């Protein structure tokens, strides 16, 4: 049996909810697990209604996650704490969930109503070595703190494009970064993981030790243990430039911008490029389109398109400042939300038809208070795909032998009474979109884990 197969006998299904390793015994009540952990580590266990408990629930991106009530919140402060807790969870067959930033949208992705919650926010180390040109990060850090620490030294790393995202979830789900054409996903740059396995063993997974696990952690999911430290390289970054531009969503402007988006990304398919572009269509009440362009070399970029814009905001500064001002302001939280994602080959006509399909599916809900639709398009050029060559997703991305586009639909609304029909409409659009892309031989089997909606 290979080392990875042996290891997987102890792996924990942490993607939806995590269970221990004693399936033959009756699962204990969640409160019993909390008591067992409290008896061993009383200072890090927080019960329902406490300040720490309520504070954790208040950090979730989606209300659907916020609504779940774990039996207790457990806040380890070290890998040793995690190890001791996992031993108890495995021995007693305790159900639990694991949360770092809490930015995943679907229920039970990082919270639970059937067990206890691992809250990793106190595993928030940020250790920079200018001598070795590396940074070591705890999973509970948020990128706003990471970028602020690095900006003092004019360096950066392949981190999130939104400040409020947690380090742990971002890197274990892959992580699309501004410099991905050169370095691939954020996970492609991690050269060592400190991991606690389900039996409580603490190991380091890298290219020479536990190499199969090291490979799996690079975008194969969160099912293999709890990562307590990520070691990554840093890169010089005196300044980056970014801009958000809004355009009217007329039929003509939409067609022109999609054509210009396709050309822009093909023209910038180069491992040495420092450019990153996202196109977002926002039909419905606003009827606008938006482009987000970032140049991580600090060079000002011309607009992606010649279409007359409504408004533009741009910023030149450290990664910390630009990420905060350009991308983070685009996402509000908490929200009631449903997501759909898929990956396709680049094709302007498909994108135009998907936009029309989206409008048709949600037309019955037009005028509903708080309803917002945003469908984003993020290019995976060939240079980007080649930069992922040492990760589990490389073959599925490469099989198209073409540039790919990652599509994300984000549906948000306010009234909990609308939950069922909004989720149903989102799923209906997703099914139709996949069918259309498949019919045109444009569908890719690659699914970006950080955008995937549900188990």
TrEMBL record:
Domain called FAD-binding PCMH-type: residue spans: 66-237
Signal peptide boundaries: 1-18
Alphabetic keyword roster: FAD, Flavoprotein, Oxidoreductase, Signal
Molecular-function annotations in GO: FAD binding; oxidoreductase activity
Family annotation (Pfam families): FAD_binding_4
PROSITE patterns named among the record's database cross-references: FAD_PCMH
Superkingdom field: Eukaryota
Keyword Membrane appears in the UniProt entry: no
Family (UniProt): Belongs to the oxygen-dependent FAD-linked oxidoreductase family.
Name used for this protein in its record: Fad binding domain-containing
Natural source organism: Trichoderma arundinaceum
